[in-house]
Amino acid sequence: MKYASIDIETLGLDPDNCDIIEFAAVLDDLSTRSPLDLLPTFHCYVLPRSSYSYIGEPYAMSMHPEILRRIGSKQAGYSYFQTSEVAEKFKQFLDNHGYGCVGGGPKLNVAGKNYASFDARFLRRLANWNDLIPTAHRTIDPAILFYQDGDEKLPDTKLCCKRAGVSIEGPEHTAIHDAKVVIQLVRAAMPQKVVPCL
Question: At what angle do helices 175-189 and 157-164 cross, to 10 degrees?
Answer without folding.
Answer: 40
